[in-house]
Amino acid sequence: MKKKILWVEDNADSVRNWELFERNLSESDLKNLSDMEREGKDFEFEIKDFLEKKNIFIEEGFSGACKRIFEEDFDVIVLDVKFSTEPGNTNEEKQAVEEAKNLFANAFHPFDEQHSEIETIFSEILGNQEYGGLLLFYVICLHYENRKGIWNLSDIKTKVCFLSAHSKRPGDLLAKYEALKWNPQIGNYVREVENNFWNKIDEGLVNVKAFIEKDPYLDILEKYLGKTEKERFANVLQTQDDETQIEVNLHNLRKIQEKMLEKLANDVSSFQGMRNRYLQGGKINVRGSLRWLNDNPDSFHIRPEDIRDWDKLFDVLKDCSDDISKRIYEFLHYRSRKRVSNWSNDQDIEGLKVFVLKDINAIINRKDFFFRNLIPERDKKDEYGKIHWILNKKFYYVSDSEYKKLNRFLVDRVLSQAIRKREIYFDDVHYHLALSIHAIGSEAAHGAVIKQPDVLYSMIYAMKCVILKFGELCGQKAGLRDKSRE
Q1: Which entry of 222, 260, 358, 396 is 20 to 30 Å from 204 by CA?
Q2: What digits encode the pLDDT tens for the residues 422-448?
Q3: Region of 368 on the Ramachandran plot (φ > 0 left; ψ -120 to 50 alpha; else beta)
Q4: CB-based contacts of 105: which residues, under 8 Å, 6+ apart?
Q5: Taking the model in full, what pTM does it have?
Q6: Which domains, ranges and CATH numbers included, belong to the chain?
C-alpha cells in the first residue's frame, strides 16, 4: 500500500535516489524516471509532477512545506534540518507562513504579554536557515496537536524523520530558546523523534528507506499479539479494495480489537480494575472496557505528585477570582479555609498541603458540588463536549464514578496551572474510534449488508489509530510478553 510522503529538502538532487521510494514506485516507474533524467526533463515541472502522481511530494522551502502540511495529511514527512526559509512567491505561501507564526505564538505563550516575544523568536528562527527544518518540525507538531487526534504523541515517531548533513538535532532549539519550554508538550515530541535523526554521509539513506517502508501497525500486532493477528490485519489491508470482502474485513477488525483489549486486561497490572469488571470467562466486554479506558476511574483523585505548583494552587483558592474557585473554597473544611485565607507564599505549607489535598479529593467524591452554571459561557461549546453525555442524563441516573468525573472536570478547569491533567488511557478520539470499530464490526458479523468501501476505509484508519495507542500502552507497562519471540 502506497504511503503519502512529503520530503522537505533545499537541494532536490539529494532526493534523486529513487530506490528510496520503492514502496510507491514500480519497476516501470523507476525506468520512466531514469529515462526522464537521461532526456534532461525539467525536474520542477515534469519529474515532480510524475512523482506527485505516485504520492511523493517534494518541497524546497518553508512556506511551500507549511502550505502542504496545513492543507493535506501525510503518512511520512522527511525533513532536512537546513533549507530555505524565504516567505515564498505566492500569496498562499505568505499566508501559510503567517498562519505558522500565529500557531507557534498561540501554542507557546502562557500569558498575553509574552505573545510578542514569541512572535519575535519565530521571526528570528525563521531568518536562520540552519534551523529551518527544526522550526518546521515544531509547526508540524503544533498543527496536528491543534487538530485534536490526526496525529498523537505516540505515533509522530512513525511519521517524521530527519535526514541532514548538519549536526543540529531536534532538541537544539529548546536548548537555545528558554521560552520554547513554555509548551512542555514540544519537549515530549522532541524525545519521540530523537532516534529518527540520520546523517546523509553515513547510513542515513538506508535508514530513511527503511523508515518509509516500515509498517508500525503490523509490527505492534506481531510483537504483542503474535503472527495470527498480524496476518489478519495484513489481509484486511491487502483486500480492502475487494467489495466482496467488506463485511468479512469489518468483522476481522472487530476481532483484532477484542484481542487487544483482552491482552491489556490479562497482562497489564494497571488494568486490574478493567479485568475484574469486564473480563468474564475469558470474554471481554468491549463497550465496558473501552469506557473504563476512557474514564480511568482510578485517576479522579489528586495525588501529591500531581501538584506542579503548590503556591499557585493556594493563590487560586485564596483569591477566589471565579465561581469555580469560590465553590471549591466554600466546600473546604473550615480548618483549611482559615489557613488558606491567611496563607502567604513565604510560609511553611507542608501541613497545609495534607489538609487541602484531602479536602479537594473529598469534594471530588461529592454529589452536590457540580452544577452546569459553573462553566463560563465562552467555554461551554468546547468544554461540554467532554462531559455532555453525562449531563444529558437525569441526575438520579448519574453514577458515583460519573459524579467524580464531573467534579474533577471543574477542578481541572480552575487549577490547570497548578495540577497535572489526570491520566486517561484512551482519550475521547480513540474511545469513539474504537466504539465505531466494535459497532460496525458487530453489524457485519450479524449479517448486515455493508457494501460501501468508504466505511471500511474509515474503519481501517480508526484501527490504525487504536493499534498505535495499544502499542503505546503495552510499551509503557512492564511485564508484557513479546509474542514475536515465542
Answers
A1: 222
A2: 777 887 778 888 999 999 999 988 888
A3: alpha
A4: 115, 118, 119, 122
A5: 0.58
A6: 5-213 (no CATH), 216-296+426-485 (1.20.120), 299-414 (no CATH)
